[in-house]
Amino acid sequence: MEAEASPAQPGALGRREGRASLRTTMSANPGLVAAGIVLAIAVALIATQGLQPVAQTGLNGLISGSYFALGAVGLTLVYGTLKLVNFAHGDLLTFGAYTAFVANITLGLPILLAVLAAIVVTAALGVFTERVMWRPMRAKGAGLLQLLLMTLGLAFVIRYAIQFVAGTAPRTLDVDVTSSVGFLGLRIGQTQLVVMLAGFAVLIGVGVMLRSTSLGRQMRALSDNFDLAEVSGIDTDRVVMATWIFAAGLAGLAGVLYTSSIGTMTPNLGFFLLLTLFAAVILGGIGNAYGALAGGVLLGLAQEWSTLLVDARWKLAVGFLVLILVLIVRPQGLFGRKERL
Amino acid sequence: MTEPLLEVSDVAKQFGGIRAVDGASFDVERGSITALIGPNGAGKTTLFNIVTGFERGDRGTIVLDGERIDRRPPHTIARRRMVRTFQITKALSAMPVIDNMALAAPDQPGEHLTGLLLRAPVARRREKEVRERAHELLEVFGLSDKAEEYAGTLSGGQRKLLELARALMVEPRLVLLDEPMAGVNPSLGRRLLDHMHELCERDGVTFLFIEHDMDVVMAHSDKVVVMAQGATIASGPPAQVRSDQAVIDAYLGAQVKA
Amino acid sequence: MTWAPFLALSFEAFGSLDFWIGAMTLAGIYAIFTLGLQLNVGFTGVINFGQAGFMAIGAYTMGILVADVGLSLWLALPIATLVTMAAGLLIGLPSLRLRADYFAIVTIAFSEIIRYVAQNARGLTGGNQGLLGFDSQWIDVSNAVQDGLAPVGLEDQFLAPLLIVTWLTLLVLATALRYLQGTPWGRVLRAVREDEDAVRALGKNAFAYKLQSIAIAAALGAVAGYFLALNLAFLNPNSFEPLYTFIGYAILILGGLASFFGVIVGSVVVYTLLEATRFLELPLSASQVAALRFVVVGLVLILLVAFRPQGIFGKRQEMVLGD
Ligand SMILES: Nc1ncnc2c1ncn2[C@@H]1O[C@H](COP(=O)(O)OP(=O)(O)OP(=O)(O)O)[C@@H](O)[C@H]1O
Ligand SMILES: [Mg+2]
Fold first, then answer.
1. pTM exceeds cut of 0.80
2. Ligand 1 centroid vs C87 CA: distance in angstroms?
3. Which segments of chain B have a pLDDT < 50?
4. Which of A294, C37, C89, C115 has the fewest CB within 10 Å, making it most exposed?
5. Which residue, among A306, A299, A305, A264, has the nearest Cα to A284 in the 3D structure?
């Protein structure tokens, strides 16, 4: 970025000033920088690969980006609010997917009701773990490692309990996975289109809710600085509960959207997604809700666009690579403040 | 007079919008005891952090014994025999007191894997010396009977003493103490001060300490440096600083605000 | 359901030599694996979630050097160990400066990348088909040892030599680590675990010690990887899932933090139980039994961490979990 901008500056002195101001602009508007980078990558890809494949993979990226973002926002809020790196968060997605399966297939309810059931039941599981595990452990003053290992244990319990009941065979929901719609030379599965639209609708709703309701603002404040929020009179208990409902409910939804979009579910789907969600969270700056939303979408794009350059089987590794690169280059993430680290 | 041991010039540090240190300059003479005072939040601890490399200053220079040390990592600064203690003590609670002490000793080849392999006898001999020295110092600070206890079992005041004793294990030329007397009972505190004087006079160790108790500052320092709102506003012999109008204003101002 | 056949069968299993040799070989392998975690977590305060990745690097490097490059196994072992240590340094250099929870995430991502490479770089690793043909030199040694076991009546147990070599290695390594931990070097490590700033203020390069800790743990992972490879006689990416790192943590917490010999006991307990469940005659499918095992592992981990964080042998005062 710097190299592109500097030749435009006249003298050596001017160039240095230009750099300094560019740098401050960059750190002041990380969102713009991110958008710029994405645009630059898109342009470069279009130039080398042609418009159609870039647009098609970009569309696919937005589909997966929508459920990545929904999964990541809960993970980041739970981290920010409770300093809990929740390795069981991915398994909440699995839990949501299988809840929808039970409602939709076992009980024969319509898919919309099944989605609702997934959200509600997963949110209830989130609240349950808060009550039974996390609140008592906080009261004991548990350390980082202690909590980390408990989330691992919980992840095992959820994942393998699901496997115990449902087996390892792939399951499908009663959604249309074959028909697709075409427009402007692009193709998208009908269900995938619904997933993407629903995903982004919820994302926007979440963004609005975090910005303009008092509960949302409190959740962000608490995620930003728990102690400060506590002394400034926020009812932390209520907000913590709301955070769990919110985080787990969205995870449940993300699980269903993921399953609908790719067609099947297996008990380890959430664990597969977990590291991608972590990547989104860290890319966006850990604890930063908007950052996680943006990070999720960016990762979706990165994964799908990578298929233009390398074999699709490396898609998941892209997420891990982004994660490691971000931590090395800008550990506070795109939107995080430096002081955090 | 020879050049100062430590020269701090125009150091500044900003945290977000807060100017924690904003143009701090002072010297510490060799073999002296210098007190650093100032109202709460004046930036004293932050200045210590910058001088010892734990925090990177935004500007300014720090010279130790004729050599620039700003921007160096803390452990290389400590190896130049400038050692500090922390305002909030950092006793290593899950290690015995004696291990806390032995840890601090310099020049232990046994601290490196290669040294363990190739210089095992030297390491063993050094360890013996280190332990003897540690016991001597614990004796001075009244912690002898706690040598084998986990440091976590010590009281707050005892931890302060342990931290000072541990700093002395580094065989320092310059010791920076962040409120060493806070929470220490008066008789132990007196002992601590006596020991500081003894080390200064006998071994030529230089001290820079942060202290809020004016009686202690006036009675025990050769020179006083006063900070307010990030800047050093006065420095000189205790008697002179006491009557300095800027200092009086700074303290009164702080009290009025509080 | 009647309990009689179930009890009979499980007693029979516990009485059989095959069962114990198999289970104890695994226990030995994962004890070596977990010694690395103990060094990192229990003695340095570095949360390494990528131990399975180091195990994979060691095992695959050894396998590729022998089967594809044609190197002697005895030469491949030290080379693979050095490669794995270099990988440890490579991942540690940029990320050990980060906060502990970030490091945990980086290392698990790293170990997943390694597994992806093992799965997808088929030309090199054989992908999911696996990698074979690296153990002929070991089999020669193993046969010789097996013949030597005739006087004690173990000449029919072709896995007995591996068991013996694994456990000898384990004991040597545990003893060496325990010795190291009592040296001034180990003292700095423990101090780093507690408070890096205090250590740096005393003139020690805390970062360098964390790097050494991770490099040694990587080497221990590699050694465990060699024994696993010889035990299975082939390499498959599934053997290096993060799951195994987490089982390592269950072993670690069970045996107690900051105790190398606790690791051995923890591993024996965990692998005896895990292997014994294979013999349970429950009215369940194989996949259900497998699932049940890990539900139990998860529950044990949660309950131990919550109620006995110092494990069975950990010292309460040295308990680093609760800080
Ligand atoms: N890491 C930090 N981030 C943000 N602000 C900081 C940080 N460290 C210090 N400050 C701020 O800098 C100012 C100076 O703090 P400092 O601890 O240096 O004061 P002090 O003189 O040591 O006070 P005291 O006598 O109470 O110990 C304070 O306003 C403090 O809030
Ligand atoms: Mg202070």
1. yes
2. 40
3. 256-258
4. C89
5. A299
